[in-house]
């Protein structure tokens, strides 16, 4: 399977709390919900189709728990998000989660790199990672990502957790797809292409 990350970010790279303020997951952060006012029919349909393409999902624990609480309790399977997330296998990287209640979940608690490589070696189309910032950074560092999709919202939040850390691996990227939606949201899909060249 091809491992693809899908991250909603601001122009200044923040990925935290795109859907709203959550005092449990994001204590003290009051600038959540920055993506919601910018969504439109076209961008929502694009993201829904993205979820439908998944053969399985890989999450970090925090994103998994937020998704399980919101999407895992819904039964309207004709909704593309609900249908995909509740009918396809889900894997969660965690050393603390022991008894997941969301059906179809497998916890990866041992050698994460070996487990992800084994998932990627399986036949199928896409192993998708949504949100899960710490996990995405780890996957990039270990060169396990095949494609990076950024859904860039036209807003500068000014603070919050950014997708890419101040210090991290340097990665050259090949742009493979670009789209723009009416509210100014831009989708950029990249493939990692080794190390950058420097002048």
Distance between the termini: 35 Å
Structural class: alpha/beta
Shape verdict: globular
- Give the tally of structural domains: 1
CATH architecture type: 3-Layer(aba) Sandwich
State the major sheet: 8 strands, mixed
Compressed to H and E, one letter per element, the order equals: EHEHHEEHEHEEE
Biggest sheet strand line-up? 4-3-2-5-1-6-8-7
Please describe what this structure looks like:
With 199 residues, this protein is α/β, with parallel strands linked by helices. The protein has a single domain (2-16, 30-192), classed as Dihydrofolate Reductase, subunit A (3-Layer(aba) Sandwich). It is built from 5 helices and 8 strands, in the order βαβααββαβαβββ. Strands 4-3-2-5-1-6-8-7 form an 8-stranded mixed β-sheet. The radius of gyration is 16 Å and the shape is globular. The protein starts with a strand and ends in a 7-residue tail after the last strand. The model has no long low-confidence stretch (mean pLDDT 96).
Brief digest:
This protein is of the alpha/beta class and 199 residues long. The chain has five helices and eight strands, in the order βαβααββαβαβββ.
Provide keyphrases for this structure:
8-stranded mixed sheet, 199 residues, globular, 5 helices, alpha/beta, 25% strand, Dihydrofolate Reductase, subunit A
What is this structure's SSE topology?
Layout lengths: L1 E9 L30 H13 L2 E5 H10 L9 H8 L2 E4 L11 E4 L3 H10 L4 E5 L2 H9 L5 E7 L19 E8 L5 E7 L7
Parallel strand pairs: 1-5, 1-6, 2-3, 2-5, 3-4
Antiparallel strand pairs: 6-8, 7-8
Helix pairs in contact: 1-3
